[in-house]
């Protein structure tokens, strides 16, 4: 039985532009089970947002070219050009989104209440055929459903710890703080009762003190309501705090996926080892990783980390198939770190020191 909620398999895509074709995602595989909280980590520019946007179906169509692979959500083919009604039922209803920047995500000219009502008019869990596009003029918002939705809205705002929810709904976006706006975003992502929430660096724009609170709240509410969360972040500390599992991306490739304990205690891909070692509290101390991320216009063949990898050999010019060093642990590397060998771990961490 296939118990995946989300199944991204071998996804390769890129964008054409004046500078040529940018090969962004290269054979990415990502699976999520119902209720799982998975971190999608990697350096800035490694393709986390592109992957999240591909799942949500919001990549710019004019330049996008899908070169291979599939995205299936609970049985719906999210890349098919004919299953658009099913895709519309999934997007914004079964899969919702928490954006990076709560400051630009609201429309400044409507009150928060008007914007939440509009969301529920279309995406309420009670709405039949939720998500199927119809002409807005011919779609009523029946009074009885609107009343029940209002109850849902007030209780969800209370659950994200927004005081005086009725007052907040009357305000305009600029009248509430950044932290409150991000709580509202979490509430709006929860209201359709989704099976998956994609949170794209949801706390980057906030104060460090508020970040941990918001992530803790997201984890608690998603778990209580049985929703899975895909959290894109470059903050490994956040991933450690709230995730069950982690997928590591490097230059548009998934290089490793592991339960959170294995990720931190027994990383197998040399890039993961470097990433962990370059944390301020890691063995390398804020050293960074020598070398540069390759260009997406002319990426190296095979493993894209090979040009920076102390273990690379000629084999690495072909993309490695996945291997499985442990339960739920996948790595794509011809020369993985042996978790049992302290000398190997030290070699990876200290190779350039
Ligand atoms: N429409 C596009 N055309 C060309 N290149 C693009 C396009 N969209 C994204 N890219 C490139 O794809 C790469 C991956 O970007 P993406 O935003 O997915 O990375 P990221 O890991 O989410 O980064 P960050 O952590 O900074 O948000 C970047 O080099 C970006 O410039």
Short description:
By secondary structure, the protein is of the alpha/beta class.
Give the topology:
Layout: E1 6-17, E2 20-32, E3 37-41, H1 48-56, E4 64-73, E5 76-77, H2 84-90, E6 95-98, H3 112-123, H4 143-159, H5 165-170, H6 178-190, E7 196-200, H7 208-225, E8 228-233, H8 236-242, E9 245-250, E10 253-259, H9 260-265, H10 270-277, E11 323-326, E12 329-331, H11 342-350
Parallel strand pairs: 3-8, 3-9, 6-7, 7-8
Antiparallel strand pairs: 1-2, 1-4, 4-5, 9-10, 10-12, 11-12
Helix pairs in contact: 3-4, 4-6, 6-7
The structure holds adenosine-5'-triphosphate.
Overall description:
- Belongs to the ABC transporter superfamily.
- Its main location: membrane.
- One of its GO terms (biological process) is peptide transport.
- By secondary structure, the chain is α/β, with parallel strands linked by helices.
- The protein folds into two domains: 6-243, Rossmann fold (3-Layer(aba) Sandwich), CATH 3.40.50; 246-350, no CATH class.
- 32% of the residues lie in helices and 22% in strands.
- The strands form two sheets. It has an eight-stranded mixed beta sheet, with helices on both faces. Strands 2-1-4-5 form a four-stranded antiparallel beta sheet, with helices on one face.
- The protein is globular and about 65 Å long.
- The termini are far apart.
- The model has no long low-confidence stretch (mean pLDDT 87).
- Bound molecules: adenosine-5'-triphosphate.
- Adenosine-5'-triphosphate is lined by residues 15, 17, 22, 24, 42, 44-50, 60, 63, 234, 296.
């Amino acid at each position: 039985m296939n118990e995946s909620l989300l199944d991204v398999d071998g996804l390769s895509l890129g964008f054409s532009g004046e500078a040529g074709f940018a090969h962004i995602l290269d054979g990415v595989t990502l699976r999520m089970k119902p209720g799982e909280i998975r971190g999608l980590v990697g350096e800035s520019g490694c393709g986390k947002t592109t992957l999240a946007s591909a799942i949500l179906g919001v990549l710019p169509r004019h330049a996008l070219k899908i070169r291979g692979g599939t995205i299936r959500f609970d049985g719906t083919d999210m890349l098919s050009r004919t299953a658009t009604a099913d895709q519309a039922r999934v997007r914004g209803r079964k899969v919702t989104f928490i954006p990076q920047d709560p400051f630009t995500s609201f429309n400044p000219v409507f009150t928060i209440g008007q914007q939440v009502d509009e969301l529920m008019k279309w995406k309420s869990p009670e709405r039949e055929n939720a998500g199927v596009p119809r002409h807005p003029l011919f779609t009523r918002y029946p009074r009885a459903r609107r009343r029940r939705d209002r109850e849902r809205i007030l209780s969800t705002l209370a659950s994200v710890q927004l005081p005086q929810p009725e007052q907040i709904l009357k305000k305009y976006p600029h009248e509430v703080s950044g932290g409150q706006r991000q709580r509202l975003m979490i509430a709006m992502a929860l209201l359709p009762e989704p099976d998956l929430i994609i949170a794209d660096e949801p706390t980057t724009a906030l104060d460090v003190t508020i970040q941990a609170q918001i992530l803790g709240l997201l984890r608690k509410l998603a778990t209580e309501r049985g929703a899975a969360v895909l959290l894109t972040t470059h903050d490994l500390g956040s991933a450690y705090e709230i995730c069950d599992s982690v997928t590591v991306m490097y230059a548009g490739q998934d290089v490793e996926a592991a339960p959170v304990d294995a990720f931190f205690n027994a990383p197998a891909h040399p890039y993961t080892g470097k990433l962990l070692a370059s944390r301020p509290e890691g063995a390398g101390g804020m050293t960074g990783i020598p070398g540069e991320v390759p260009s997406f216009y002319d990426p190296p063949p095979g493993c894209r980390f090979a040009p920076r990898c102390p273990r690379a050999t000629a084999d690495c010019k072909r993309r490695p198939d996945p291997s499985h060093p442990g339960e739920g642990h996948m790595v794509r590397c011809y020369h993985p770190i042996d978790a049992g060998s302290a000398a190997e771990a030290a070699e990876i961490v200290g190779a350039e020191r």
